[in-house]
Amino acid sequence: MEKTSSLTTYFRGDKVILIIAITLSLISFYIVPSSTHRFGSQLVHIVACYGAMFLFYKIDYRTLSAGSDIFLVVALVLALITAFGGVDDRSITIGSFSMQTFYLIGFLLIFFISKFIAIRLNKGEELSIKESLVLFGIIGFFCLIFAKSNLSTSIILGASCFVVLFVGNLSRKYLFTFIVMAVVIAGIYFGLGLGKTETGASRFRNFSISRNFDQVPDPKTSLYIKQMVLSQAAIARSAWTPAGPGQGEIKNVLAEKETDYVFATVVEEVGIIVGFLIMLLYLILFFRSMQIAKKSDGYFGRLLAIGIGFWITFQALIHIAVNCAAIPATGQTLPLISRGGSSLLFSGIMFGVLLNISKKVENEKYSF
Known about the structure:
Layout: H1 2-10, H2 15-36, H3 39-58, H4 61-64, H5 68-85, E1 91-94, E2 97-100, H6 102-122, H7 129-147, H8 151-167, H9 172-191, H10 197-210, H11 219-237, H12 262-270, H13 272-295, H14 299-323, H15 341-360
Antiparallel strand pairs: 1-2
Helix pairs in contact: 2-3, 2-12, 2-13, 3-15, 5-6, 6-8, 6-14, 7-8, 7-9, 8-14, 11-12, 12-13, 13-14, 14-15
């Protein structure tokens, strides 16, 4: 009994989410060095991820909510610097350190929206049409900034914000307005050929060509098809059980095998069962985030838990769908598994906040 009490004293959050985070990061610690031989750097990234997770598990998310307006300003500044002064429209460089900012920007935006809606709901009020339009404008602005460099990230952000608005009991009339505005803005954006719209259109064309082998692709398309075919081949080559460390062969010629196509790399080397396990873990993560939201004391924790859980799960499912050639390439990484210092760091922050919200829930035991 003393051991149980001691463990409970040290950790009071959702143990299933903690186990999911540890399991996914251990898979990353195995597969990334196996593919790139970067053992030391990946170890540093995972340690930083755990450090961020522990820090934000300890900091009360309600205390952080006092800075939600500041977070929005920080997100705005980061978005503008990244889009117009960054290294590649996705990253900024501080000294010798390069950081992809969109993970942080997305989290800060969801944090702000959750607090903005929660203040009204805690007062028993509904958002007015003016307040709703303000939120729509803020979300639309960030989605357009994201679309400048990565359309799929813009879609993930917009969908995550919509889920928060939906759970926040926003008037269905306003939600319909949000959808109409999004469609109109997207139509104008694509019609004018702004940002990465041509890249997105070409990926859809290439994806269509890859399904029709009667067409002869151009050299650029051939590279795209090669990448997609290799990803499918890696998954098809896998067995039910692990092949063993370093036994993957197709991964050696698969571009971006440790980032955009890490799921195919994992399945080839570790087996189909582990592939299904990974998908199941992300789905359980979203289920647990919904349970935390349902039990959460206050609207802010409810909305923030749903926003974080949906973002991580939706991004993971998109990554897996690309690796299985179900949708065109998007450039999305697999949370907590793909190589990347900033992605692991900010994933650790989001998991830490989610664990902190679960810690504040009175009843920690959720039934499946």
